[in-house]
Design a protein that fits this description.
- The protein has 392 residues and is mainly beta.
- The chain has 2 domains: 46 residues; 309 residues, Pectate Lyase C-like (3 Solenoid).
- Helix content is 12%, strand content 32%.
- The chain is built from 2 helices and 35 strands.
- The strands form 5 sheets. A 10-stranded parallel sheet has the order 1-2-5-8-11-15-19-23-27-30, covered by helices on one side.
- A hairpin with a 4-residue loop joins strand 34 and strand 35.
- The longest helix is centred in the first third of the chain and has 42 residues.
- The N and C termini lie far apart (110 Å).
């Protein structure tokens, strides 16, 4: 009898302990959920949806702008071939996270503006991706104050501009693209050609921005004043692995930097035209010029004005002989595969192979010293040198 009572008491204790333990676990789980939800709401990490959507355009009567306006962060908009007109407005992109991509590439998918404003605007905070379009304008009537004929990157925007053809646009500053104060766009693997600036930056103008301008072909752009292909003013942009070919300006036919702290590395700058500084002009500032090939640019491949020794080019092939023997610079024929057709790869015995900077930061991807020009260095991607449009 006593043993039975003790057994019953033990069972009651066990049941009580189990209920206590179970309640404790429930309480802890519930408390943990409350804490996590609080963190999500406070930090903004609570997702709007469980997964991003893919939106196809055209779809019914929905326009591309409608799709951009109603898309959620993380969505992808796939755009079918065709010409999309922006004659009375522009493609305005304000979403922080959004991908807008053509289904069949820039040859077949055109964003056409009227020329009275940018074709595409990325607003403050936007980190959207624009991938695979031709961005162009018909002749405009109002360019007296226009910044960015093709694309305007607003202050504090950071879009990714990828695999596009940006051509035949016009503005006062930045005929093709304008990068405004504190913007940080990535401009990669585009063809930027036949754009015009009535002042500076025929292809791209960067003002107090930290743009990354890489792996592009900039050709046949022009600026009345400076920076036929690229103009920089008080910025910290990185300009690397571009082909800059046949651009024109009053000074700085290829690149013009004014009071900038840009890094200009592993570019091929060829056959650009200016009254002085056909290749590169640097005025004041602390620009770094490294691993460049400057060849057959008119009136000085490199022109420096009021700069210190740190702005002198280093480990570069400079055809007119300026700076030869200083900082590892040379002036021999770079021996391109086919300069007339725009193939600027180096032949196997080129003096520009493995003779770039000895700094490990600039080493080629195979671990050797950097090749000079657009096809060397650590950040090399295939430079897009297909021409999708009429050169004339």
């Amino acid at each position: 009898m006593i043993g039975w009572q003790m057994g019953e008491q033990c069972q009651q204790n066990l049941n009580r302990d189990w209920r206590y333990t179970s309640a404790s676990k429930t309480y802890l789980i519930f408390s943990g959920i409350i804490v996590l939800l609080t963190l999500f709401f406070v930090t903004g990490f609570l997702p709007d949806r469980l997964s991003a959507a893919t939106i196809h355009i055209p779809q019914g009567n929905r326009t591309l702008q409608d799709a951009v306006d109603t898309a959620e962060p993380g969505d992808t908009i796939i755009v079918a071939p065709g010409t999309y007109h922006f004659f009375y407005d522009k493609l305005a992109i304000s979403k922080e996270s959004l991908t807008i991509k053509s289904s069949h590439g820039a040859q077949q998918t055109i964003l056409l503006g009227r020329g009275t404003g940018p074709v595409v605007i990325f607003y403050k905070g936007s980190k959207a991706v624009l991938d695979g379009f031709t961005i162009t304008s018909v002749a405009g009537s109002r360019v007296v104050d226009l910044q960015g004929g093709g694309i305007y990157c607003a202050p504090e925007s950071a879009p990714v501009i990828l695999n596009n053809v940006i051509t035949k646009n016009e503005a006062v500053l930045g005929g093709g693209i304008y990068c405004d104060t504190l913007s940080a766009p990535i401009i990669d693997n585009n063809i930027i050609s036949n754009n015009t600036a009535t002042v500076t930056g025929g292809g791209v103008f960067s003002y107090r921005s930290s743009a990354i301008i890489s792996n592009n072909l900039l050709m046949d752009n022009k600026a009345a004043n400076s920076g036929g292909a690229i103009g920089c003013n008080r910025d910290t942009s990185r300009i690397n692995n571009n082909i800059i070919w046949k651009n024109r300006a009053g000074f700085g036919g290829g690149i013009s930097c004014d009071r900038a702290a840009s890094i200009i590395a592993n570019n091929t700058i060829v056959l650009n035209v200016a009254d002085y500084g056909g290749g590169v002009v640097v005025e004041k500032g602390s620009v770094r010029l490294t691993n460049l090939i400057l060849w057959q640019n008119t009136n000085n491949d490199v022109y420096l004005k009021q700069v210190g020794p740190s702005a002198r080019p280093a480990y570069s092939l400079i055809g007119d002989g300026s700076f030869r023997g200083i900082n590892g610079n040379i002036s021999e024929d770079p021996t391109f595969v086919n300069m007339e057709d725009g193939d600027f790869h180096l032949l196997p015995l080129s003096p520009g192979i493995d003779t770039g900077s000895m700094d490990p930061f600039y080493m080629d991807t195979d671990g050797t010293f950097s090749d000079m020009g657009a096809y060397g260095g650590p950040e090399l991607f295939p430079v897009n040198n297909e021409i999708f449009f009429d050169k004339d």
